[in-house]
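quick one, 125 residues, struct below
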Amino acid sequence: MGKHIRFGKYLADKGLITMESVISARLLQRRNNRMIGDLAKEKGWLTEEDILRILVLQEETHEIFGEIAVKERYLTSEQVDELLKKQSDSYLYFGDALVRIGVITAEDIKKHLHEYNQSLKQPSE
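---
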């Protein structure tokens, strides 16, 4: 189970949000948080074929997409840096997505995320 779903389930189990809200927030993240290949394609730097080739290499080597793109000369390191900055600037965190869809306040997210993280540090009985 992904970390976002676990935190979402934690909030749902406490009765603060529904699992449907978890899914809605994750969908908002998916629409907002663009992959580096998609951003490069949007700029005309990579084709769909280029992206697929890099993804195949990534599956085989477990290297980072941007490193492969530079090593295989699809992109320059400057282009990758620009794409990573754009990706980082627009990144939407799970808690922020829950706040944006209006199911919980930012203050509650902060409080419950702290509690959730503390519960992860406690040894299992």
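The first helix runs from residue 3 to 13.
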